[in-house]
Amino acid sequence: MDAVRHEFVNLAKVGLAPEKACARLAASLQAGGERVLILCADETQAREMDRLLWEFDPVSFVPHGLMTEEGAEQEPVLICFGEASNRNQAEILISLYIPELPFTGGFKHVIQFVPAEDGPELKKARDRYRELKNSGMQLMHTTHLN
Predict the structure, then answer these.
(1) β-strand 109-114 against 5-10: which pairing, if any?
(2) How many helices (H) and strands (E) does the chain have?
(3) What is the DSSP letter of 74?
(4) What dihedral do alpha carbons 63, 67, 68, 72 form, nearest 10°?
(5) Conformational region of residue 2, where left means phi above 0, alpha means psi within -120 to 50, and beta covers everything else
(6) Most buried of 8, 87, 108, 130, CB within 10 angstroms?
(7) pLDDT tens across the length of the chain (146 residues)
């Protein structure tokens, strides 16, 4: 298996809230035929992502579902919380928070967000970036979204 590519999206440069940036990325990736898993911090954030994906583009639909719904494993974009259980066999993970443990599950591309505001989450993102860089992982730093 090829090395996992880790991408850090700088929200201060992108100018979007994490959920809106996530919706844009998920829509774009799914339109390109990719299967995506979105990892949320909790059920409240997962339901907000579900709402955003319904409303993201009024002229198209981003096929998606919540991990708690029947048939979730068949969704091209699956929203989960708690753990990155890759039930839809996605190759791309978009994480809306930085969990304590490294990612597993056969992802080829992991996308994380660097918070725009100073604080504990920004420190956690920077620590994760350093940890991955020191381990020799392939890293990308994104400052704009198409």
Answers:
(1) parallel
(2) 4, 7
(3) G
(4) 50
(5) beta
(6) 8
(7) 467 888 999 999 999 999 999 999 999 999 999 999 999 999 999 999 999 998 877 777 889 999 989 999 999 999 999 876 888 999 999 999 877 666 666 889 999 999 888 888 888 888 888 888 888 887 888 888 86
